[in-house]
Amino acid sequence: MKLDSNIAAVITGGASGLGAATARALASFGVKVAIFDFNAEKGEALASALGGVFCKVDVTSDAEVDAGFAKSRAALGQERILVNCAGTGNAFKTASRDKATKEIKHFPIDAFNRIIQINLVGTFRCAAKSAAGMLSLEPLDAHGERGQHHALGGQRGLVVLGAVPDRQGLLGEGDLGGDAADLGPETLDHALFVQFHHRRDQGTAGFDLLLGIKGDVR
Questions:
Q1: Angle, to 10 degrees, between the axis of helix 17-28 and the axis of helix 40-50?
Q2: Are 33 and 27 in contact (CB under 8 A)?
């Protein structure tokens, strides 16, 4: 895919960290960028600087993701690139004993569910909705850009799924390793899907997962 002003891209978690760096990198090639994030102040500022559009989006919300895609597509056109960088993290052991009180505690399930809803379900929610939009596009050239990465019939779009590079969490901790391991087969399944529809997946993008973790645990 040639990166230029004919291409629109959506970057989730695009207001800071890896997402912001990705938005800047794509914009440097002339790509029209839409930033999905819940941090309106940073997102608006970056989108303005890059000549793009900001969409206030919580990736755990179907309604907000739908509204974000509607806004970005109205402003920039159907995206051919999606980069999922929205993600977060925490640090709890599956079970632990308080050193002072000796009380035994288990991993707070609501905290685990929050990570899964953002990092796993949110990633797939955006990927599925973006892929559905890409199916409306025509191949980028008359030759269908065949051959590379088993693109059988033509290059319509590129979906980049964010994932932690390794599958193993920290000792005694469940969520960071768990959602990353789930994203592995999810990425593979999505790659097979988009290949079937004549597109290719190209690489992965990471999350700023460790920003929610402090001290020696990070």
A1: 10
A2: yes
Compute how many other C-beta atoms are within 10 angstroms of the C-beta atom of residue 112: 18
Residues in contact with 189: Cβ distance below 8 Å, sequence separation at least 6, in sequence order: none
Q: What is the domain count for the chain? A: 1
- Domain range for residue 121? 8-217
Q: Is 113 within a domain? A: yes
Indicate which CATH number applies to the domain containing 95.
Answer: 3.40.50.720
pLDDT, one tens digit per residue, over 18-27 is 889 999 999 9
pLDDT tops 90 at residue 45 = yes
- Identify which has the larger pLDDT, 155 or 5: 5
pTM of the model: 0.71
Q: How many helical (H) and strand (E) elements, i.e. helices and strands, does the chain have?
A: 6, 8
pLDDT in tens, 102-141: 999 998 899 888 988 988 899 889 988 988 888 888 877 6
With beta carbons less than 8 A apart as the criterion, state whether 176 and 167 touch.
Answer: no
Cβ(205)–Cβ(85) below 8 Å:
yes
Residue 149 lies in a domain: yes
155 is a domain residue: yes
Q: Terminal CA-to-CA distance of the chain, rounded, Å?
A: 36
